[in-house]
């Protein structure tokens, strides 16, 4: 049988195989190998390592999945999501929320490759090309809650088209598996905002969003 291209394999393939008892770690490694082989868009050309995809960080048993936009240069070099300045800010947020990185949270990106110098916003084509890999990760991890960090992840997961100022902190759903999704500002937005008043407002929004994430996790425990 001809092997199906990695960017066309269905979420339901992973879903069925998880239900049948196949090892989640084996399935995640298969997704990683498919990502390495993927040539569905040109982002693979920016990889700095032979296996230069950035897949995830955290345990497959985590109840919370945090999904961001795409790896940056630092993440591309290290192969781990959220390891740059935005990652340090996320670590502060997780600690404040009472969540432990590496235990309570599974971190990943919508795109698995660095988009390139200047970290341009991923195009709709790039998101579409990589999204099946993310859907398979979601099917394997089966989180209780998804936190979408930033507009790209939020819109990809929910298909909603609201600006973050209107969507943050509200509960949406990843409909294929009926998983609640809470969008919030990407940690890098806090770092980029130079206006003190705006930064203070954004910090309050982010804090309330993460309180809601924690509350929902407790409700669904």
Number of strands: 5
What topology, given as strand order, has the largest sheet?
2-1-3-5-4
Based on CA atoms alone, the radius of gyration comes out at 17 Å
Helicity range: 40-55%
Q: Please, what is the CATH homologous superfamily?
A: Uracil-DNA glycosylase-like domain
Determine the CATH topology: Uracil-DNA Glycosylase, subunit E
Number of helices: 9
In the CATH scheme, the class would be: Alpha Beta
Quickly give the CATH architecture: 3-Layer(aba) Sandwich
**What is the average per-residue confidence, as pLDDT, rounded to a whole number?**
92
The shape, in one word, is globular
- Secondary-structure content class: alpha/beta
| Count of the domains | 1
The arrangement of helices and strands along the chain is: HHEHHEHEHHEEHH
Q: State the low-pLDDT regions, or none.
A: 1-6
User: β content, as a range?
Assistant: 5-15%
Question: Oligomeric state of the chains?
Answer: single chain
Could you describe the largest sheet, including whether it forms a barrel?
Answer: 5 strands, mixed
Query: What's the end-to-end separation, in Å?
Result: 42 Å
Short description:
The protein is an alpha/beta fold. It has helices at 11-19, 24-37, 73-78, 85-97, 124-141, 151-158, 164-167, 187-192, 196-220; strands at residues 64-68, 105-109, 145-149, 172-174, 179-184. Strand 4 (172-174) and strand 5 (179-184) form a beta hairpin.
